[in-house]
Design goal:
It is built from 7 helices and 2 strands. With 239 residues, the protein is mainly alpha-helical.
Length: 239
């Protein structure tokens, strides 16, 4: 029982270490867009024919419809398409992780008639699996809807550009929540995988193999954190 609790605390510590630090700065937390800092990168014509500035992923202080600028810059459809492809990528990966969690949950025996320790670990395993499935489904649905509605707005032509910018601005917090869900689903799956190793292997080797697997997951989480930190400093925080 004591060994089981030590292993559980070790796994929780690895997960906490992976999620803390610079990866939760505003830029990385929101991943693709939105960025917290407002950066005017273009303008579109308003209904009265005046150019209107907009902030990609930011929140203009006085609202989209009240900002104007004199630069004659066209709406960049190519850049917006790249953003939508990036957002769609979250939906695809979240769906894959959710499917992996479902298969892991269905193929792992989480309860035992003989071992109280396995029942406790099995309960923790079930919680992480269910949490991974729910957050993965949430992330997939959120980003799928955002991508579909954004493309629908752009399909209206020049008028749709205004609709797209307004929709993109109004859904900032949903993209943030979706990215949080993506992280939660990913790390919950990794933790549940480590716990499944403990449940599948019997005898003394289970502690050694579980420890090695947990160490591998911790190393992978550390590397993921490093990539996100590099993205923050080189992509989002750079001028």
């Amino acid at each position: 029982m004591a060994r089981c609790m030590k292993a559980a605390f070790l796994i929780a510590g690895l997960a906490h270490f992976a999620l803390q630090g610079s990866s939760f700065s505003p830029a990385v937390r929101l991943a693709v867009v939105p960025m917290k800092t407002s950066m005017n990168v273009g303008c579109v014509a308003s209904s009265k024919g005046h150019p209107r500035s907009f902030s990609v992923g930011g929140r203009p202080s006085s609202g989209i419809s009240h900002l104007r600028m004199n630069a004659d810059v066209a709406f960049n459809m190519a850049n917006e398409s790249f953003k939508l492809q990036s957002i769609g990528g979250y939906s695809v990966v979240a769906t894959l992780i959710m499917n992996l969690s479902l298969r892991l949950f269905g193929s792992t025996k989480s309860q035992s008639k003989d071992s109280k320790v396995e029942n406790i670990v099995g309960l923790i395993f079930t919680v992480f699996c269910v949490f991974s499935i729910i957050t993965g489904a949430f992330t997939s649905i959120i980003f799928t809807l955002l991508t579909l509605y954004s493309k629908t707005a752009l399909g209206f032509g020049p008028v749709g550009e205004d609709k797209y910018l307004a929709f993109f601005e109004a859904t900032t917090r949903f993209r943030e929540q979706g990215f949080y869900g993506f992280l939660a689903s990913s790390f919950s799956f990794l933790i549940s995988f480590v716990l499944s190793i403990f449940l599948r292997i019997k005898g003394k080797p289970r502690f050694i193999i579980t420890l090695l697997t947990g160490s591998g997951v911790g190393y992978a989480s550390f590397r993921i954190n490093q990539i996100m930190s590099i993205a923050t400093s080189t992509i989002f925080d750079s001028p």
